[in-house]
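Message: Study each token:
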Amino acid sequence: MLDPAIVISRVGGVARGTQLQKYGISRKRLAKDVHEGRVVRVRAGVFALPTTDAEVRDAAAHGGALTCGSALTAHAIWVLEDDGPHVWVGENGRRHEHRDCTCTIHNFQGRTRFGRVGVETALLHLRECQGDEAFFAAFESAWRKRLLSTAARARVRAALPASARWLVDLARSDADSGLESLLRLRLHILGILLDCQVVIRGVGKVDFVIAGRLILEADGKENHDGETKRHKDLVRDAAASRLGYETLRFDYAQIVHDWPTVQAAVLGALARLS
């Protein structure tokens, strides 16, 4: 008889009892392994390993697979919001409430499954769930991390509604953060064109340049927190000013939660420079 833990591991960390029985694993053997702690009973008829990701187990307990931002963060893809497990239960899947349940449920087209959906599916579900901006930022992040081949990007584009395919056409592979993606998308909608990832002699590489004179920087915590990094930013800004550039810097809170102020600052700077 095959080892239940090995079989569960090979099928992705979660399996139905009926699936395991097809491998010749009896209910008695499953009960024994659950009692000994080698296998976890997620809910009636569904089993996982103690080492299976907790959110994947929660998703299985609720009746489906982890998706949206919950699946993308496992690949270190930038997501706008990650507000607890998002579970895909399929078109006609059943919901199973469980202890301390905070799951967000999706009945997107397809059959119920367990585990964590792939990057392509998670991106499509993310757009359905959180909209165009969240999708665009995550798509560029996944591309930057080389998780989307040319063929994969084409498949994602084809799966989108025709009205949303321009988002894939606008996307680039060199966005350093989701904040840059959001900034570029929103300014594009305003009709403002940006030169991206520009290298300026004496300054270094900057996120964006508009009209050849206005530098925009999207300052994420990972690259700009701390006194030393802040000092380097100030040195760069001073060097840019000496060369005739004006620099505007915006952080996460401004771009995500106070966009009207960011937009007004950019438009005001462009008016001055013109």
User: Anything to note?
Assistant: Residues 1-52 form one domain.
